[in-house]
């Protein structure tokens, strides 16, 4: 399990850390109860500011994906997968974000068919990761 | 007096030579010139210490040699600071928490702590049986043993967080090597303190042993900074790039 960040990326460092951890938790690479490195260790390994990692961890904690126990460490929290039907607000919020992605796709010149193919390809990759 | 002269003169030389050897092994540029010139100073100091068989002369020689050796070593290390910084745009980290206990078994560390406490108790008992004017050596060796315990504990923690290698096997070996050195240095100094309370001049073998073991231990602890590699700080990278 390796986390990688790109300094040259247009995505902020804390978003890169957060996105990768979210994906690993979503596909089950990081299991429930698994311990993660401390803020100090991760910041030192990536040579980024302590606050960058702390911010990413705090946001994941707010999303209910991590538990940060002061002095005990950072742990992955249980994620309800495939069991519950997501709340209506959560579905609506996801729909809104998808619409924004379609707008972005149109603005960079992708046709609806190309956008659909891209979405399907990404979804395919995601489910393959999850299965493995 | 001979044993004091040996300790005084050999210690700065030994520490500097080991630090420079570690730096060269790490591929850092350390010029040989200043050290060669300082070898002559060491010989002069050794002769002076023996000729003027006085403690004050020996202490003065130690101070002069210490400063004389420390300056070129520090300058060389400052010049090589850039070579220790890694510039990488893509950075990776293992998502596994690291603690010293993950590399050195907890019972081994507890055993060392118990041995240190037992040795200290032995030293205290010994201190109560000898005259106050013969305590210098006992106290010196005890302080040295405890200092090594603290220094190597800090070094072990530093190795655990070091970013030199992502390979955990390599890290395990390095942490265990530091722990082994911590055991040898701490216990040997505390045992020397407990076994041989008395004046330095009467113990030339002990003085030489303590100087060599202590000098090497001290030099390795001081060279931890040279062995570390640092990733360029993210903020510095951004600032440099934005000004280009």
Describe what this molecule looks like in 3D:
- The complex is a heterodimer of chains A (132) and B (244).
- Chain A is built from 5 helices and 4 strands; from the N terminus they run E-H-E-H-H-E-E-H-H.
- Chain A has helices spanning 13-27, 39-46, 50-62, 88-107, 112-131; strands at residues 2-6, 35-36, 66-69, 73-76.
- A 3-stranded antiparallel sheet of chain A has the order 2-4-3.
- In chain A, helix 2 (39-46) crosses helix 3.
- The longest helix of chain A is centred in the last third of the chain and has 20 residues, at 88-107.
- Helices cover 73% and strands 4% of the residues of chain B.
- In chain B, helix 1 packs parallel to helix 3.
- Chain B is flat.
- Chain B starts with a helix and ends with a helix.
- Strand 1 (2-6) of chain A pairs antiparallel with strand 2 of chain B.
Keywords:
heterodimer, A: 132 residues, mainly alpha, three-stranded antiparallel β-sheet, 58% helix, B: 244 residues, two-stranded parallel sheet
- Main sheet strand line-up of chain B: 1-3
| Class from secondary-structure proportions of chain B | mainly alpha
Order of helices and strands of chain B: HHHEEHHHHHEH
Describe the global form of chain B.
flat
Mean pLDDT of chain A: 85
Strand order across the biggest sheet of chain A? 2-4-3
Biggest sheet features of chain B: 2 strands, parallel
Mean pLDDT of chain B: 76
**Rg from Cα of chain A:** 17 Å
Shape, per Cα inertia axes of chain A? globular
Strand count of chain A: 4
Alpha-carbon Rg of chain B, integer: 21 Å
The DSSP helix count of chain A reads: 5
Helix content of chain B: over 70%
Please summarize what this structure is.
The complex is a heterodimer of chains A (132) and B (244). Chain A is mainly alpha-helical and 132 residues long.
Write the layout of secondary structure elements.
The complex is a heterodimer of chains A (132) and B (244).
Chain A: E1 2-6, H1 13-27, E2 35-36, H2 39-46, H3 50-62, E3 66-69, E4 73-76, H4 88-107, H5 112-131
Antiparallel strand pairs in A: 2-4, 3-4
Helix pairs in contact in A: 1-3, 2-3
Chain B: H1 2-25, H2 33-51, H3 55-79, E1 85-86, E2 90-94, H4 106-129, H5 136-161, H6 168-195, H7 204-222, H8 224-227, E3 230-231, H9 234-243
Helix pairs in contact in B: 1-2, 1-3, 1-7, 2-3, 4-6, 5-6, 5-7, 6-7
């Amino acid at each position: 399990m390796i986390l990688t960040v790109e300094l040259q990326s247009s995505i902020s460092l804390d978003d890169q850390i957060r996105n990768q951890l979210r994906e690993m938790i979503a596909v089950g690479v990081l299991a429930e109860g698994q311990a993660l490195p401390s803020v100090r260790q991760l910041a030192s390994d990536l040579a980024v500011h302590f606050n960058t990692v702390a911010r990413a961890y705090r946001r994941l904690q707010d999303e209910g994906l991590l538990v940060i126990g002061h002095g005990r460490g950072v742990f992955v929290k249980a994620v309800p997968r495939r069991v519950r039907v997501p709340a209506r607000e959560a579905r609506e919020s996801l729909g809104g974000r998808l619409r924004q992605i379609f707008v972005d796709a149109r603005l960079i010149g992708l046709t609806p068919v190309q956008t659909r193919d891209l979405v399907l390809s990404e979804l395919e990759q995601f489910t393959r990761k999850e299965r493995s | 007096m001979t044993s004091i002269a040996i300790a005084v003169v050999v210690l700065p030389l030994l520490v500097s030579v080991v630090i420079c050897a570690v730096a060269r092994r790490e591929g850092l540029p350390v010029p040989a010139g200043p050290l060669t010139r300082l070898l002559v100073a060491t010989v002069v100091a050794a002769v002076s210490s023996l000729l003027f068989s006085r403690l004050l002369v020996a202490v003065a020689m130690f101070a002069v040699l210490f400063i004389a050796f420390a300056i070129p070593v520090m300058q060389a290390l400052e010049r090589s600071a850039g070579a220790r910084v890694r510039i990488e745009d893509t950075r990776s980290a293992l998502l596994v928490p690291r603690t010293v206990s993950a590399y050195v078994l907890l019972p081994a560390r507890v055993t060392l702590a118990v041995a240190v406490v037992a040795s200290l108790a032995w030293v205290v008992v010994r201190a109560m049986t000898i005259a106050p004017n013969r305590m210098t050596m006992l106290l010196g060796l005890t302080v040295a043993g405890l200092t090594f315990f603290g220094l190597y504990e800090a070094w072990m923690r530093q190795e655990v967080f070091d970013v030199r290698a992502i390979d955990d096997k390599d890290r395990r070996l390095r942490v265990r090597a530091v722990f082994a050195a911590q055991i040898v240095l701490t216990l040997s100094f505390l045992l020397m303190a407990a076994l041989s309370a008395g004046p330095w001049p009467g113990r030339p073998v002990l003085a030489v042993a303590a100087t060599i073991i202590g000098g090497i231990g001290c030099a390795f602890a001081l060279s931890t900074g040279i062995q570390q590699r640092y990733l360029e700080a993210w903020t510095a990278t951004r600032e440099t790039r934005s000004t280009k």
